[in-house]
Amino acid sequence: MHHPSKRNRSPGGGCGGSSDNRNEAGQLRQGNSHERPPVSSAALPCVIGTISKNTLEEIRVSLDEFRGVALLDVRIFADFTGADHDNKRPTKKGISLKIAKLPELLQALREAEAEAIRRGLLRKEGAMPDG
Fold first, then answer.
1. For residue 10, what is the DSSP state?
2. Under 8 Å CB-to-CB from 50, ≥6 apart: which residues?
3. Predicted structure pTM score
4. What is the CATH class of 7-99?
């Protein structure tokens, strides 16, 4: 079982293995915003990370493509069988947005994190306050 705040990456640090565009801290490297890496539909969908929500559900962050448009997908996957093995399927709960919107989403998430810290709901290192 995964810890609720644990994030897992696929083997090789992402979909691109050693060609992944991450620095040593696991953060995406900043590049020229006008550069667009080619989207290979053969490499998609590509699961970037998984966050355990509870014993039956997990949140998967992935890159995907629909009708030639590269997308970021953040979706809940659930085990509808209740079996002990990993048999999770995608649900309707989640969002898909164009990759170009990723910087705006990241900024909103940073602001949400800062507000949660300001309100005492989250510690800087990401741990929940005792209570």
1. -
2. 2, 7, 8, 58, 59, 60, 61
3. 0.63
4. mainly beta
Q: End-to-end CA distance of the chain: give it in Å, rounded.
A: 24
Q: Which residues of 91-120 are buried (b: 16+ CB within 10 A; e: fewer)?
A: eeeeeeeebeeeeeeeeeeeeeeeeeeeee
| Separation of alpha carbons 81 and 120, rounded Å | 38
- Residue 39 zone, left/alpha/beta (φ > 0; ψ -120 to 50; rest): beta
Q: Tokens 């620095």 belong to which residue?
A: 23
Tens digits of residue pLDDT in 14-64: 676 434 444 444 444 444 444 455 555 567 889 999 999 998 899 999 999
3-class DSSP string for 30-97: CCCCCCCCCCCHHHCCEEEEEEECCCCEEEEEEEEEECCEEEEEEEEEEECCCCCCCCEEEEEEEEEE
Kindly state the tokens that stand for 88: 């999770």
Mean pLDDT of all residues in 90-115:
96
